[in-house]
Amino acid sequence: MGSIGTPAPAARGFVLSKKQIDSVPLENFSNNSKRATGGWKQIFSSPQTPTDGLNLGIAHFPPRTATQESFEALHRHKQAEFYYILSGQALVKIDGIDHEVGPGAALFIPGDSEHGFWNTSDSEELVFLWGFPCDGFRDVVYRFTGDEAEDAWSRAESAA
Protein backbone atom coordinates (compact mmCIF):
# COMPACT_ATOMS: atom_id res chain seq x y z
CA MET A 1 0.00 0.00 0.00
CA GLY A 2 1.00 3.58 -0.52
CA SER A 3 0.11 6.10 2.16
CA ILE A 4 -2.83 5.14 4.36
CA GLY A 5 -5.94 4.51 2.29
CA THR A 6 -4.25 4.75 -1.12
CA PRO A 7 -3.16 1.73 -3.13
CA ALA A 8 0.52 1.21 -3.87
CA PRO A 9 1.54 2.12 -7.42
CA ALA A 10 1.33 -0.83 -9.80
CA ALA A 11 4.50 -2.31 -11.25
CA ARG A 12 5.02 -1.53 -14.91
CA GLY A 13 7.01 -3.15 -17.67
CA PHE A 14 10.38 -1.68 -18.60
CA VAL A 15 13.73 -2.58 -20.15
CA LEU A 16 17.22 -1.98 -18.76
CA SER A 17 19.99 -1.72 -21.34
CA LYS A 18 23.38 -3.40 -20.93
CA LYS A 19 24.84 0.08 -20.37
CA GLN A 20 22.37 0.72 -17.53
CA ILE A 21 23.11 -2.66 -15.92
CA ASP A 22 26.87 -2.15 -16.30
CA SER A 23 26.52 1.16 -14.43
CA VAL A 24 24.85 -0.47 -11.40
CA PRO A 25 27.38 -0.50 -8.53
CA LEU A 26 28.74 -3.82 -7.29
CA GLU A 27 27.63 -4.50 -3.70
CA ASN A 28 29.02 -6.91 -1.12
CA PHE A 29 28.72 -7.90 2.52
CA SER A 30 30.61 -4.79 3.70
CA ASN A 31 33.92 -6.38 2.76
CA ASN A 32 33.32 -9.20 5.26
CA SER A 33 35.63 -11.84 3.75
CA LYS A 34 34.26 -14.50 6.12
CA ARG A 35 30.89 -14.25 4.33
CA ALA A 36 31.84 -13.69 0.69
CA THR A 37 34.74 -12.61 -1.48
CA GLY A 38 32.73 -11.39 -4.46
CA GLY A 39 29.80 -9.12 -5.00
CA TRP A 40 26.55 -8.59 -6.85
CA LYS A 41 24.49 -6.07 -8.75
CA GLN A 42 20.78 -5.63 -8.09
CA ILE A 43 19.04 -5.49 -11.47
CA PHE A 44 15.37 -5.67 -10.43
CA SER A 45 14.87 -4.67 -6.81
CA SER A 46 12.15 -2.47 -5.36
CA PRO A 47 12.28 0.41 -4.52
CA GLN A 48 15.22 1.05 -6.91
CA THR A 49 13.19 -0.33 -9.82
CA PRO A 50 9.40 -0.27 -10.38
CA THR A 51 9.06 -4.01 -9.78
CA ASP A 52 7.23 -6.21 -7.33
CA GLY A 53 7.27 -9.88 -6.46
CA LEU A 54 10.62 -10.56 -8.14
CA ASN A 55 14.17 -9.65 -7.19
CA LEU A 56 16.91 -10.32 -9.78
CA GLY A 57 20.63 -9.75 -9.71
CA ILE A 58 23.94 -10.81 -11.16
CA ALA A 59 26.83 -12.06 -9.02
CA HIS A 60 30.55 -11.73 -9.78
CA PHE A 61 33.12 -13.81 -7.91
CA PRO A 62 36.80 -13.55 -8.91
CA PRO A 63 39.02 -16.55 -9.60
CA ARG A 64 40.55 -18.11 -6.51
CA THR A 65 44.25 -17.55 -5.85
CA ALA A 66 46.92 -19.48 -3.98
CA THR A 67 46.12 -17.46 -0.86
CA GLN A 68 42.43 -16.61 -1.27
CA GLU A 69 39.36 -18.74 -1.91
CA SER A 70 36.48 -17.19 -3.86
CA PHE A 71 33.16 -18.05 -2.22
CA GLU A 72 29.90 -17.18 -0.52
CA ALA A 73 29.76 -18.94 2.85
CA LEU A 74 27.03 -21.37 3.85
CA HIS A 75 23.84 -19.51 4.71
CA ARG A 76 20.03 -19.62 4.68
CA HIS A 77 17.15 -17.24 4.01
CA LYS A 78 13.41 -17.83 4.07
CA GLN A 79 12.94 -17.19 0.35
CA ALA A 80 13.61 -19.78 -2.34
CA GLU A 81 16.38 -18.74 -4.74
CA PHE A 82 17.63 -19.65 -8.18
CA TYR A 83 21.04 -19.40 -9.83
CA TYR A 84 21.75 -19.54 -13.57
CA ILE A 85 25.47 -19.88 -14.28
CA LEU A 86 26.65 -17.55 -17.07
CA SER A 87 30.41 -18.21 -16.88
CA GLY A 88 32.95 -19.95 -14.69
CA GLN A 89 32.92 -23.13 -12.64
CA ALA A 90 31.70 -23.61 -9.10
CA LEU A 91 31.08 -26.10 -6.37
CA VAL A 92 27.65 -25.38 -4.91
CA LYS A 93 26.56 -27.03 -1.66
CA ILE A 94 22.80 -27.32 -1.07
CA ASP A 95 21.68 -28.99 2.17
CA GLY A 96 24.97 -30.87 2.46
CA ILE A 97 25.08 -32.13 -1.15
CA ASP A 98 27.88 -30.92 -3.45
CA HIS A 99 27.09 -29.98 -7.06
CA GLU A 100 29.74 -29.09 -9.65
CA VAL A 101 28.29 -26.53 -12.05
CA GLY A 102 29.33 -24.53 -15.09
CA PRO A 103 27.82 -22.30 -17.78
CA GLY A 104 24.19 -23.12 -18.56
CA ALA A 105 23.49 -24.86 -15.25
CA ALA A 106 20.32 -23.79 -13.43
CA LEU A 107 19.91 -24.33 -9.69
CA PHE A 108 16.83 -24.15 -7.49
CA ILE A 109 17.40 -23.65 -3.78
CA PRO A 110 14.31 -24.11 -1.57
CA GLY A 111 13.59 -21.56 1.14
CA ASP A 112 15.56 -22.11 4.36
CA SER A 113 17.95 -24.57 2.68
CA GLU A 114 21.56 -24.22 3.75
CA HIS A 115 23.68 -23.35 0.71
CA GLY A 116 26.91 -21.73 -0.38
CA PHE A 117 29.34 -21.85 -3.28
CA TRP A 118 33.01 -21.72 -4.20
CA ASN A 119 34.55 -20.58 -7.49
CA THR A 120 36.74 -23.59 -8.36
CA SER A 121 38.70 -21.83 -11.12
CA ASP A 122 42.02 -20.09 -10.64
CA SER A 123 41.64 -18.25 -13.96
CA GLU A 124 37.96 -17.48 -14.63
CA GLU A 125 35.47 -15.24 -12.88
CA LEU A 126 32.25 -16.94 -11.72
CA VAL A 127 29.23 -14.99 -12.99
CA PHE A 128 25.62 -16.00 -12.43
CA LEU A 129 22.09 -14.64 -12.32
CA TRP A 130 20.20 -15.04 -9.05
CA GLY A 131 16.67 -14.29 -8.03
CA PHE A 132 14.20 -14.35 -5.17
CA PRO A 133 10.37 -14.24 -5.14
CA CYS A 134 10.17 -10.97 -3.20
CA ASP A 135 9.92 -7.26 -3.93
CA GLY A 136 13.49 -6.28 -3.16
CA PHE A 137 16.84 -7.52 -1.88
CA ARG A 138 16.14 -5.67 1.38
CA ASP A 139 13.48 -8.34 2.07
CA VAL A 140 16.08 -11.14 2.12
CA VAL A 141 17.62 -11.79 5.54
CA TYR A 142 20.81 -13.85 5.27
CA ARG A 143 21.58 -16.15 8.21
CA PHE A 144 25.15 -17.37 7.83
CA THR A 145 26.04 -20.75 9.31
CA GLY A 146 28.07 -20.12 12.44
CA ASP A 147 26.70 -16.61 12.98
CA GLU A 148 23.96 -18.01 15.24
CA ALA A 149 26.59 -19.63 17.47
CA GLU A 150 28.70 -16.46 17.50
CA ASP A 151 25.63 -14.34 18.31
CA ALA A 152 24.55 -16.73 21.09
CA TRP A 153 28.10 -16.68 22.52
CA SER A 154 28.16 -12.87 22.41
CA ARG A 155 24.78 -12.68 24.19
CA ALA A 156 25.97 -15.15 26.85
CA GLU A 157 29.21 -13.20 27.35
CA SER A 158 27.39 -9.89 27.72
CA ALA A 159 24.86 -11.42 30.17
CA ALA A 160 27.65 -12.75 32.41
TrEMBL record:
Task: Spell out the coiled coil positions from the record.
Answer: none
Residues in Cupin type-2 domain copies: 69-130
An MF annotation (GO) of this entry = metal ion binding
> Which of UniProt's keywords are assigned here?
Metal-binding
Q: Which residues belong to the signal peptide in this entry?
A: none
Superkingdom to which the source organism belongs: Eukaryota
Q: Which Gene3D superfamilies match?
A: Jelly Rolls
- The yes or no answer to whether the keyword Metal-binding is present is yes
Xref: Pfam families: Cupin_2 (PF07883)
Q: What is this protein called?
A: Cupin type-2 domain-containing protein
Organism this protein belongs to: Dothistroma septosporum (strain NZE10 / CBS 128990)
